[in-house]
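anyone seen this seq b4? input:
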Amino acid sequence: MEMIELAVPVLVFFLMFIIGASIEKTEIENLRAQKKQVIAVTLGQMLLLPLSAWLIIKVMQPPSLVAGGMLLVSLCPGGAVSNIYSFLAKANVALSVTLTAFNGVVSVLVLPLVMLTVFPSLLGVDFPLENIIVKQALQLVLLLLCPVVLGMIVRSVKPELMVKLMPPLEKIGAVGLLLLLLAIFSKFHQKIVEQLSSLLLLALMFTFASLVIAYCLSYFLQLNNKDEAAVVIEFPVRNLALAALIAVSIFNNSDYLLFAAVFFVIQTPIMLCIISLYRSALSRSRL
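predicted toks r here
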């Protein structure tokens, strides 16, 4: 488990650096006109996804460790992989990157407080106040906010170089996340097999709930097709590397990673279908 514990913060930092390096000044300026939509979608992720996870937990009554893993994933911000998915789907990549970065930065402030109140009341997990606030807030600042800012600085200083480096960096990040989840599978394959049916069902339910919430929110906000695609892709894709970091460093319980590993495997083919549908629809709309 030591290798996973060492790899997780490095991977989180790297993925958030990629997000920061993906943001161009012109994209931020163009998105100022959409600031209300960005705020609404961010709030939707922070409020509606944990709410849907909580409702599923209440209905299905899974084991506490599975429930904790699911709730943890729902509380995490969007993952950098969603930006790659949006690119493949021909969605609004600038909006996707902005949503991921903004949600990640807001999580620095919100996550410690939410976990301090939600986890004890729902799962009976108790944390010393100073531990959850100070330790986690510091980790999130160092591993979310700092790499995003660093990536933006590097992009502004060396824009041409970063444009060339972004495709291989994104591939390395995606491969790194895949290797991390494979390592989790290898480490806990017996526990995963024992609870596979429960994990599969919960992963499917949360994935489809996320997609439905995103589509309904996009319809309510009257987003165009490219923006809708970015939002629908963003909602199900959580920062699983951050979930792993919190599980091993805050909870000191790696069993919370079981749901995250199964969730990624179940979600991937579903997201590839979503990408294909939007790519086809958006390509036709340009004709």
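The domain at 2-285 is CATH 1.20.1530.20 (Na+/H+ antiporter like fold). The mean pLDDT is 80. kinda curious what u guys think
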